[in-house]
Amino acid sequence: MCGGRGTRLDTEVEKPLFRVGGVPMVDRVVGALEDSGVKRIIAATSPNAPETKSHLDVACIETPGEGYVADLDAALADDRLSRPVLTVAADLPLLDGEIVDRVLDEHSGGSLSVLVPASLKRELGVSDDTTFEDGDREVAPTGVNVVGDGSDDAWLTRDRRVAVNVNTLADAHVAEQWL
């Protein structure tokens, strides 16, 4: 998923092309997927990120650029995809093949949401704008999911490789500390 505006990042460059440790975030995510057991990579782009679409060397699905959920729905409707589908946000510069494979191992059918404790995001010093209660715990989505047919499941991890989403310049500085 690499078609968002990235307004909170407050930079001139499109969010997926924002460099963390000298490398565009989208390249780090594509590299992690290439280093994993994922068989095919297709990027979901939008009119909000035309330079990202030109930059990528993978197949692209054009989405309307109306927000994450609308863009995800548009991408999932594309005939090139069949479920289950691993979805990954382009703002996860610490992602690597090992954690992607671990997510795939945790998936046992249906859909899987990868969550982290909201307290972990605070400990790491990254933004935690989206949190919710899951049982007795405050959790945050990571931007990594498996969308399938059937029941929904969640995997809670304390792995910083999925906990550090870069939404602000401060988040980028934290990510660079962990590279």
UniProtKB/TrEMBL annotation:
Top-level division of the source organism's lineage: Archaea
Domain MobA-like NTP transferase: 2-119
Any one Gene Ontology molecular-function term assigned to this protein's record: transferase activity
KW Transferase (keyword) present: yes
SUPFAM superfamilies found in the cross-reference section: Nucleotide-diphospho-sugar transferases (SSF53448)
A Pfam family reported for this protein in Swiss-Prot or TrEMBL: NTP_transf_3
Record keywords, A-Z: Transferase
Protein name, as recorded: NTP transferase domain-containing protein
